[in-house]
Recover the amino acids of this structure.
């Protein structure tokens, strides 16, 4: 029972942050609804009603875009038509598809933050991982059976992402170079490396001329969970969940994890206690990069199917946001990633149906981070008493 | 830890500002086209069952005052013509297939995708949905299949429901190059691209060819900096080549230092910075994709002309063609002859250009349209 109360208390703040952000988003939708507001002079009630109706239809579209329409799913299931079922459940599966790379990258961020490393290089590590996976897959194409290619490519992508993350960890541990600077800069380097790679005929087959790789899914593909037309959900999502369990175990049930967290709490104390703080940094950054790289690998081999420079689309940065929202807890990362996945997936349909640009979603996501970062603000808005200060206990 | 939170809050605030800027960008006005592209408009949609036309944008996004905005203009024209419309925006590569599928689920009957990045997603969707018409801006159908090698098992012939909308922009750019060569006071013209893609270097090829043709006709030696007509040139590169106006200003200054007085940037919004810097220096620039003297009216005094892809008309015509029952089956190539590409009017600089030069550009335009002058004859690699 006390556990449940503690859980609620821990969850209250992020949930209220999301609700508050959505409310602010609603206000923005209303005040930018120029079409309705232009009638404010002649028909004030109708104008405001119309603008609020716009919020309703926008958020309604977001909900059905993220989770689907239950009635439609039921009818489709009864009809038994594969195409209808696929259409009905696609919003839900697309939410999970969008969440998968966010879970990987978010877990990576959580590990590095736990060790006191502010890893902003998720984007770079993700795309370098994707490059590693793509290169390996193309090199092995035709020389090995598909399952072997799949496993090899994922491992190669994970290791490449890990090495890319290891560099700033090493620089910090050995030279004190601040990881915020090095990880941000390595994002740019990674983008250049990938563009350079995509110029080679090896990755980019002759005839295309554009910086986009060969299609990998013609010879290797992550198996789908559901074999329905145009459903992209594959076992990458399941692996993401498994990784969350592993990360949780590693951080809170192993000596290495204890050392990582000790380094994050207080480097000097950790060192004094005889732990290798530098080693913890390098390990944390390697694992962080490896997880992001694994996420990128599952994207190129599974859901997206080919490598291009816009593969990431800001996943590395969203991962920072959601890891903070999650309180750096692996279970929280999964929930926050599902939330962000639902927001982005739903936001796309909101854009199509109501014309509200998905830039609004950036706005909402940014507000979520801001409110999580400023808990006092949310407490003031919702008049919640400040809880007694408790030591940050690992869970 | 507190510092960390501050940093995050700062980042979040920055993101809000960025989001606000992004959302506020309005689609660029484009001049009403005089002549339409070769595809003839057909049946107007009836009120009873409105034909639904949709556009899937790429990550360049709306507000680029080019490419994507032009396609948006075409969609708006379609809405004005009585079609039901919708569009989707993409954040990353993972959105392409998903967005196209969402538009299919929304009941779109024509889906126009913008940009080469969506090629695979568009091709897959076109094959999976033979009753829906697909078109792709700046692309032709890749009949060689995913391996880009003709004659192999994965070859896919152009399906009957696909229209590639490709633009022979080097023809219009050649006119711009000729005009620039005749207009330049220093005899030095600059160009650069966002990244070395064929779609970009095609503009630069045209500039190179136009200057070469001018030199051949007049016996002059006007030079082009930034592109050698073959493989080597100046490119922005980096992870943000298309949206970095500060970098564009910097590049303009480099060109100005070398005595260049006209620059043709081919790099989206990055080029807007170049045009701004050329205006500040009292020099000139040549716009790209759309008539930038209109879309960037504040810099119009520096914009000599623009090499235009008439994407909006091509999109509208494709939608009308599809609604008339023709779902595609061949690629559309915009040329000077069919009005798919053109040289924009001279606007503010009209009086500064001599009547002789205007007449020569006009004559060259007709010569290219009729085929008597070929752009590629003036390239170092000879096509």
């Amino acid at each position: 029972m006390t556990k449940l109360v503690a859980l609620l208390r821990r969850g209250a703040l992020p949930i209220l942050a999301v609700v508050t952000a959505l409310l602010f988003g609603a206000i923005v939708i209303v005040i930018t609804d120029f079409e309705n507001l232009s009638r404010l002079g002649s028909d004030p009630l109708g104008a405001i009603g119309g603008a609020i109706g716009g919020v309703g239809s926008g958020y309604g579209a977001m909900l059905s875009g993220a989770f689907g329409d239950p009635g439609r799913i039921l009818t489709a299931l009864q009809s038994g038509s594969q195409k209808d079922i696929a259409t009905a459940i696609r919003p839900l599966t697309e939410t999970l598809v969008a969440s998968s790379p966010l879970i990987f990258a978010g877990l990576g961020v959580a590990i590095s933050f736990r060790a006191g490393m502010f890893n902003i290089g998720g984007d770079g590590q993700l795309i370098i991982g994707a490059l590693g996976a793509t290169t390996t897959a193309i090199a092995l194409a035709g020389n090995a059976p598909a399952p072997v290619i799949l496993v090899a490519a994922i491992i190669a992508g994970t290791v490449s992402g890990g090495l890319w993350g290891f560099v700033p960890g090493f620089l910090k541990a050995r030279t004190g170079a601040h990881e915020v600077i090095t990880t941000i800069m390595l994002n740019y380097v990674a983008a250049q490396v990938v563009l350079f790679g995509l110029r080679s005929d090896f990755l980019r087959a002759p005839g295309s001329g554009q910086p986009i790789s060969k299609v990998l899914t013609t010879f290797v593909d992550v198996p789908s969970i559901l074999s329905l037309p145009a459903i992209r959900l594959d076992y990458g999502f399941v692996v993401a969940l498994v990784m969350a369990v592993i990360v949780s175990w590693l951080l809170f049930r192993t000596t290495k994890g204890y050392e990582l967290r000790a380094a994050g709490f207080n480097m000097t104390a950790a060192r004094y206690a005889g732990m290798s703080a530098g080693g913890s940094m390098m390990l944390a950054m390697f694992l962080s990069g490896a997880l992001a790289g694994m996420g990128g690998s599952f994207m190129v081999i599974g859901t997206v199917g080919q490598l291009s420079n816009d593969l990431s689309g800001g996943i590395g940065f969203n991962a920072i946001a959601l890891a903070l929202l999650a309180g750096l807890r692996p279970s929280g990362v999964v929930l926050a990633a599902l939330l962000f996945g639902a927001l982005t997936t739903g936001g796309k349909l909101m854009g199509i149906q109501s014309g509200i640009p998905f830039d609004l979603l950036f706005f909402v996501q940014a507000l979520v981070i801001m409110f999580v970062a400023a808990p006092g603000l949310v407490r003031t808005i919702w008049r919640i008493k400040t809880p007694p200060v408790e030591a940050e206990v690992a869970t | 830890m507190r510092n960390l939170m501050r940093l995050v809050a700062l980042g979040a605030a920055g993101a809000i500002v960025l989001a606000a800027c992004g959302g506020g960008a309005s689609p660029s006005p484009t001049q009403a086209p005089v002549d339409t592209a070769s595809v003839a408009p057909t049946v107007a949609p009836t009120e009873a069952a409105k034909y639904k036309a949709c556009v899937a944008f790429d990550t360049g996004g709306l507000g680029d005052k080019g490419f994507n905005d032009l396609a948006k203009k075409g969609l708006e024209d379609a809405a004005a013509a009585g079609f039901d419309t919708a569009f989707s925006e993409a954040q990353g590569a993972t959105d392409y297939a998903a967005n196209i599928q969402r538009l299919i689920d929304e009941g779109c009957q024509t889906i126009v995708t913008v940009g080469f990045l969506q090629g695979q997603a568009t091709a897959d969707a076109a094959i999976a949905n033979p009753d829906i018409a697909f078109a792709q801006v700046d692309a032709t159908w890749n009949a060689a299949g995913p391996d880009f090698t003709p004659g192999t098992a994965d070859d896919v012939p152009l399906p009957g429901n696909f229209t590639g909308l490709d633009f022979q922009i080097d023809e219009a750019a050649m006119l711009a190059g000729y005009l620039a060569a005749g207009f330049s006071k220093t005899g030095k013209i600059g160009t650069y691209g966002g990244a070395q893609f064929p779609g970009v270097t095609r503009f630069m090829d045209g500039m190179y060819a136009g200057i070469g043709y001018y030199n051949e006709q007049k016996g002059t030696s006007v030079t082009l900096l930034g592109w050698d007509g073959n493989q080597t040139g100046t490119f922005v590169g980096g992870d943000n080549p298309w949206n970095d106006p500060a970098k564009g200003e910097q590049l303009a200054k480099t060109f100005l230092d070398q005595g260049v007085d006209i620059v043709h940037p081919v790099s989206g919004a990055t080029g807007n910075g170049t045009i701004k810097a050329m205006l500040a220096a009292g020099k000139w620039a040549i716009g790209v994709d759309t008539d930038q003297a209109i879309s960037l009216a504040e810099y119009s005094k520096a914009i000599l002309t623009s090499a235009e892809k008439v994407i909006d008309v091509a999109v509208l015509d494709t939608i009308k063609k599809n609604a008339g029952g023709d779902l595609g089956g061949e690629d559309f190539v915009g040329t000077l002859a069919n009005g798919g590409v053109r040289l924009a009017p001279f606007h503010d600089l009209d009086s500064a250009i001599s009547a002789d030069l205007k007449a020569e550009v006009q004559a060259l335009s007709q010569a290219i349209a009729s085929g008597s002058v070929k752009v590629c004859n003036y390239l170092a690699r000879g096509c």
Notes: Chain A touches chain B through 65 residues (CB under 8 Å). The mean pLDDT of chain A is 89.
